[in-house]
Design goal:
InterPro entries: SGNH_hydro_sf. The chain is of the alpha/beta class and about 500 residues long. Helices cover about 45% and strands about 15% of the residues. The chain contains 14 helices and twelve strands.
Amino acid sequence: MTVAARRIRFPRLRALLREARSLPTVALLALIAVAGVPLVIMLTPEKHVEVFGQDIGVGARVPPLSLSGPAQIVQLGNAEFDLTEIEVYGPIRPRLSIGPLTRPPDNGPLLDAQSADDPGGVDAAVRELTEGFATWYLWGAAGMVLTALLGSAAMACARLLVALRRGRTRNRPVHWDDHAGPIGRMTTIALAASLLLWGGAGVAALHGTTTGLGKVTSLSDLVGATTVSPSPVGPPVTGVTGAVIGDSRAARIGGPLVEGPDGTVAPDDAACSRSVDSTAAQLSSLRGEQVLNLACAGASVPAGLRGPQQRDGVTVPPQVGRLKQVQGLEWVAVAVGPNDLAWSDFLLYCYGLETCDDRLSDGEFDARLAEFARDTGALFADLDDLPGRPRVVVTLSYDPFPATFDPACPDMRGPAGTPGLDQAKIDLLTERNRRLNDVLADGAARFGFTTAAPNLTPLCAVSGDRMGPDLQGLDRPDPFHPTALGSLRMAASTAAALAVPREETPGSR
């Protein structure tokens, strides 16, 4: 290097160092670090990728005042959760937005791990998330450049205003040439410092993200879903061949309550509305066996079957936990679904509004159905691991409405002052019930369980044998639930499924 070159380079370097120590430049750098980075994180749009069949938005959370912290997941319309598997140092901490959840095309458990015949599924998911974050990060880098330029412009204006005020006070003219050099050096330093800050934070974020994602095998790992099976609850049970678990349809809400030998009703039986003509009682008569009734009105998979249920001031233990205490159990019948989807919400929506096929309700149904698919997968895994591997029969959800709308039927018109149902609404509810049954049937097939499809006469229709209605109408306290006859038909469908030898059931094991 020639002496002339050194004379050119070193003065410029010394000028940059002097400018880096100046008050305006120090203030600008502090402003970029304290406010610029959070602003860029907040304003940079998420990059959307598809992972485990779900649309996930990849971005970063606005960093709290700490040196490190976890990434975050936000389910739209729901709470925020820290992803403890992903710990990141620095201000850039990934944020994943998911929802509404979408059930996989094969109707499998929503958050289940990738199957053994698809070993690359997890690697592909990690790659998609990493690439999505890298894309978001590059857009953020462009935002940092823009922030540095805007901050430099604002600080340049402030410097010129101060210079003009001083010049007016001292009666000295202000020339642009005297300030162009310092402003240019300040802008150069701001740009370099912004990119270095963003680059360092990005390296730390990428390292923390890839390290954390290396532990992920399913979407369950991200959201922290648990599939821990309920523990055995209560004393051992002997002398029964089968058991029924489920909701109010299996408990047969609306019927006379079952009484003990002393004529009293046990607290659990009263709280769960278990009737003398429940599915379990009907199966006991049809098969000539002792059948344990654990079904409970209002039960869902998380609150009732896999977890405790609060019902009329009584804490009912998990039905699966009670099943684990049954010795010599040969078969289990399970009826779930409508409570998990809060089916009554959609019924009220369709009865009360002129139309109920809007995007809001459809999106809500999709989200609930996807969550139910996840919960059902966990439930079926519990049943598959029961001691002795009893046979499992999954009861599908019956459709309470006829295929053709009957305007003369009071159960179609609904309560006074409401639009009631029409053909389009019936078709919509029927389709949603079919999708619910898809989850149950496909989940049962995955585990080799048998399915039973009750053939109940819908509302406003007359059964072929003319024995009476199978369902309670709107004039009853528990509409859409089976009558005693409907409960018998449900039990008959389960008995027919149990009559088929297990080895003849498709997919059984």
